[in-house]
Amino acid sequence: MKVYISVDIEGVAGITHWDEATIGKPGYETFREQMTAEAAAACEGALAAGATDLLVKDAHSSGRNILPARLPESVHLIRAWSGDPLCMVEELDESFDAVAMVGYHSGAGFGGNPLAHTISGKVFRLLINGEPISEFLLHSLAAAELGVPTVFLSGDSLLCEDAREARPGIHTVATNTGKGVATTSIHPARAVASIRAGMEAALKDEAARTLPALSDRYEMELWYEKNEDAYVAAFYPGASLHAPHAVRFETDRVYEILRMLQFVL
Amino acid sequence: MKVYISVDIEGVAGITHWDEAEIGKPGYETFRNQMTDEAAAACEGALTAGATDLVVKDAHWTARNLIPSRLPEPVSLIRGWTGDPLYMITEIDESFDALAMVGYHSGASNGGNPLAHTAAGTEFQILINGEAMSEYRLHSLAAAELGVPTVFLSGDTLLCESAHAAQPGIHTVATNTGKGAATVSIHPARAVAAIRSGIEAALKDEASRVLPALSDRYELELWYDKNEDAYAASFYPGARLHAPHAVRFEADRFYEIMRMLQFALVRL
Hints:
The structure holds 2 protein chains of 2 kinds.
Chain A: E1 2-7, H1 28-48, E2 53-58, E3 75-78, E4 98-104, E5 123-128, E6 131-132, H2 135-145, E7 150-155, H3 157-166, E8 171-174, E9 176-179, E10 182-185, H4 188-204, E11 218-224, H5 227-233, E12 239-243, E13 246-251, H6 254-264
Parallel strand pairs in A: 1-2, 1-4, 2-3, 4-7, 7-8
Antiparallel strand pairs in A: 5-6, 5-11, 9-10, 11-13, 12-13
Helix pairs in contact in A: 1-4
Chain B: E1 2-7, H1 28-48, E2 53-58, E3 75-78, E4 98-104, E5 125-128, E6 131-132, H2 135-145, E7 150-155, H3 157-166, E8 171-174, E9 176-179, E10 182-185, H4 188-204, E11 218-223, H5 227-233, E12 240-243, E13 246-251, H6 254-264
């Protein structure tokens, strides 16, 4: 069984401020360790469920946060970014049986997390077919297009609720509840234990493997903070300026959406 | 008569070092003044030849180098970058009669100027149908696709010679000859006078209006300094990784080549 584990930081237990997610800033080392502990727990859960191939993506900012030596030895780890449009699930392909996402967070415009955003601070709203989209939704659609289900998710409670609504079979672990700039979180050790158990349960549960419904047409709308960023992005092949701050792009594949984002964010 | 004047700095009279091209660095103010003088001279020459509409593009780096108040009053000036794929000739269209380029420089790998480069770092190379591009050549082809001839060019000697080979009717003023890290230049005032009379003569000369030959297929090859930049650029729609440091892209319209460059250069 091949399992892909994509790990972000803004949804690990207790994280609350951008400093804690920024390399070199005070508080970062604490949460990079928590990110590592949660990633390792997900790997252990996957191995306990019978995973034979484990690929972990360090999917936050520099892509160089996880402490590699603390992961189980059988893991392959992807650090930094190649430019592959699959972005946070870089190098995922049809041969994988499942994707898991750890430390994920609510998207731009959702609330639910003081660190809510979608990929880049340049855009305050990213809509697909009229729905605001989180990194979880975007990458789980991209994975679904390759036939790979997202079976497990950990992160803030709003994201977990949204995920269970969009994907009734998914297993989730809610680490934090965001209230304005504050969070209420479970204990870091409890988050780690829940992720280990949750991941194992998800991989043993056939019902978690249901793929989300795909569309045959995607209309994306990107709302930029700065009108000049929208103006430039509108020159991407097939894109158009929809409003001074907004660019539209239509396609029939999620992969093309991710390809476009690679060049315009 | 509508004339577009695109102005760069690395080919103005006397410029020799990157500091002199970089805002805030020692020597910059001298050459930003020279860039402004050469741009103003080109405008004056165009007005004398009968230009009624003049658009000037500040086409170097920040695109905030020219001192606006020193240009003739009828001029419209474009500062900054919109992201328009036409880049150094942003907003040019079929309604223009002629394009002039001032302060231009030899391209990456061509030598001829201590500041030789094409669009990005000095190692970055743009080949089109096997030919190493200078910024002059690139934009003169983009303008030609819109039916606009490049009638005048000033910049380093090697660039001027290569322009004559590509476009026999073009009028040029050679300001500097590059020798390794050094330049031999004409006097700044002489460059200004030569540019003024050169553009006037070019606009009055029907023979200068011949368009360079266009192709019906363009194969673009981008050679990056860093293999990781090539890898990322290779995901642009229609592009592919040709070698660890090189990306290939094909198009039948030159504009699509310019559009691709707009996105493939963003990361550099």
